[in-house]
Amino acid sequence: MIKTVLFDLDGTLIQTTKIIIDTFKITFKKYFPHLSLTDEEYTNFLGHTLFITFGYYTDSPEKVDEMVKFYREVSEEMIEKGLQSYPGARETIEFLKRKKIRVGVVTSKMRHVALHHLSLVGLDDLIEGIIGYEDVKEHKPAPEPIEKALLLFGAKKEQTVYVGDHENDIVAAKKAGILTCAVTYSERLGQMLSYQPDFVIDELANIKDLI
Questions:
Q1: CA dihedral of 105, 91, 10, 175, whole degrees rounded to 10
Q2: Is the same domain home to 78 and 88?
Q3: Which of residues 50, 82, 114 is at a domain's end?
């Protein structure tokens, strides 16, 4: 029986995938104007920290820091203009809460940023805890973020499921020994399915069928 549901944030609970990709394009145009990347290469950035992504293109820590700062400024401006959650997000989490199921978020974003984005879409009051970028040393696909969430909630592995939109979500959760759930509206569906998640759902409301 599932007693704890952990969600990834970007591309799972909130509709930031297009914003993320557009922000990457703006950032690379500014810092590497002669570099030509395909749409597939941009989607490959999803699920990784900004420091790792930009570090592939420069050996300068100072330039990486500058790119991260610029990226966050552009992204936040876009997000403030009209961030939305995925359909059924609030109703699904409210259902879980009524069933006495604990709900948390595990993300590669800074915790305060994640909380702000949750507040913009009206979900912050439903989330009991967040594991963010600063809470771990090794990020997904390493299991540490999931393991930290298990400790935070005092949850049992066999009673916990992680819902995500990226193969790193599935890999991290499997390494941590918990159940995995993939959303089909992901840009990385094929890659996720290759890791054989325990559950696959078309929309967040389908989580109700797992309980």
A1: 50
A2: no
A3: 82
Cβ atoms of 93 and 126 closer than 8 Å: yes
Let me know: does 199 contact 179? Beta carbons within 8 Å. yes
| pLDDT above 90: percentage of residues in the chain | 97
**Does 30 score more than 90 pLDDT?**
yes
Residues with catalytic roles? 8
Domains identified in the chain, total number = 2
CATH number at residue 78: 1.10.150
- Total H helices, total E strands in the chain: 9, 6
Q: Which residues of 84-114 are buried (b: 16+ CB within 10 A; e: fewer)?
A: ebbeebbebbebbeeeebbbbbbbbbebebb
The letter for the amino acid at 146 is: I
How large is the average pLDDT for residues 101-127? 96
The CA distance from 183 to 192, in Å, is 9
The two structure tokens encoding residue 201: 């759902």
